[in-house]
């Protein structure tokens, strides 16, 4: 009897298993890799069958993946959109097929009725926190800042730039003297920082603002190779709070980071579960926390805590 019942339960839960397609951008950063790992883990814990598609940073691959998920008749789609524009048609197609789409970590310019909800942080706020941190750090001293932007056209690159500019607004002693994309990668962060160091007069760069930690880690290497001390000669502030930046902070080579949680899938699956269950429509935007960490926060201990959390 008991084993028959168990089999029946298993069969019914198998019948209820939902299938979710996840169109991920790629693996450009440690943060992104952690988001992928945690999404897989969250899906597994909830008995969700996750179909994963890595777009290798290309929007056309993401559009193709979403179309294929629609053709397969998945129960929902998670989309981490590489850039903000160009999604209307494919989102319309998902809507016509009655497949709810949840955006993860980046936003799109499309109208809100084309997706169920978006899970993410306040990206402008993150940039503002980084800018305000620098204001507090340099006081009245003159400070020339170089900026490493994220992927061109992506919502975090647009909003983190805007937020930082808001954060330093009214402090004319702080100036952004160079700003270029490093595409959210360590390699490009290093390469572009090398070009900044060559272009600016020796000793004239006071701070680096990087839209993510990976670019900051690459840039730290470039600063060291130029014979300067990152964290001292050039202050380093960035965003994500991945384990490697805490290691750099513990070594005195980075100064501050703003945390972005890589677990966007947890809130996304919660919203989907409620929607599947009784049609509950989630809020337009499910906001995750952003927290500033500095060298005063025992970075070595945070590194130890974080290093096994999917990064
Ligand atoms: O969209 C979030 C950003 O994308 C993260 O800050 C960055 O590391 C990632 O690649």
UniProtKB/TrEMBL annotation:
Keywords: Signal. The keyword Hydrolase does not apply. Residues 1-17 form the signal peptide. Residues 21-265 form the Periplasmic binding protein domain. It comes from the Bacteria. It is found in: Cell envelope. CDD domains: PBP1_galactofuranose_YtfQ-like (cd06309). The keyword Signal applies. Its main location: other. Belongs to the bacterial solute-binding protein 2 family. This is Galactofuranose ABC transporter, galactofuranose-binding protein YtfQ. It comes from Neoaquamicrobium sediminum.
